[in-house]
Amino acid sequence: MTEFWKTKTLAEMTTQEWESLCDGCGQCCLVKLEDTESSEIYYTDVVCYLLDHESCQCGDYQNRCIRVPDCIKLTAKNLDGLGWMPDECAYRRLAEGRGLDWWHPLVSGSYDTVHLSGASIRGKVISETEIDVEELEQHIVDWVR
Ligand code: SF4
Ligand code: SF4
């Protein structure tokens, strides 16, 4: 595969290229809290029930928006309005002209580097099925990047 992410805009990418940009970090699948006054977003270490904690992949990617109605399907058109996406998300990095980091699978050639670099949520999270929603605030974390 050519280094398409260096030569194409997000809007110019094919579906296959677009999908390959997701590094599988799983950070966008963390449950988030929003301060209603400041609109600030806080990430928690609680993750969507469909996420596989080991592979960090969605358990039903094709039907994700049906199974989880507030799961947002990323597109080149809605990316601008998604300021809550993690700083290191590949889509956000490219949208902001920051390129891909060394651990991105398209650069390193392996998904292992996403986990080895600490960019993924592997080993850091619990499922939303394991906690009471009232406890969410106690799960706010600062390691999302
Ligand atoms: S944060 Fe970005 S790169 Fe990571 S899983 Fe979500 S969409 Fe993929
Ligand atoms: S449905 Fe899948 S992609 Fe959407 S938040 Fe849950 S695990 Fe992530």
Commentary on this structure:
With 145 residues, this protein is α+β, with helices and mostly antiparallel strands. The protein has one domain (4-139). The chain is built from six helices and three strands. It has helices spanning 4-7, 15-21, 64-67, 90-95, 105-108, 112-116, and strands at 30-34, 41-47, 126-127. Strands 1-2-3 form a three-stranded mixed beta sheet, with no helix packed on it. Strand 1 and strand 2 (41-47) form a beta hairpin. The longest helix is centred in the N-terminal third of the chain and has 7 residues, at 15-21. The model has no long low-confidence stretch (mean pLDDT 95). The structure holds iron/sulfur cluster (2 copies). One iron/sulfur cluster binds at residues 29, 48, 50-51, 58, 64, 67-68, 71.
Nutshell version of this structure?
This protein has 145 residues and is α+β, with helices and mostly antiparallel strands. The protein has helices at residues 4-7, 15-21, 64-67, 90-95, 105-108, 112-116; strands spanning 30-34, 41-47, 126-127.
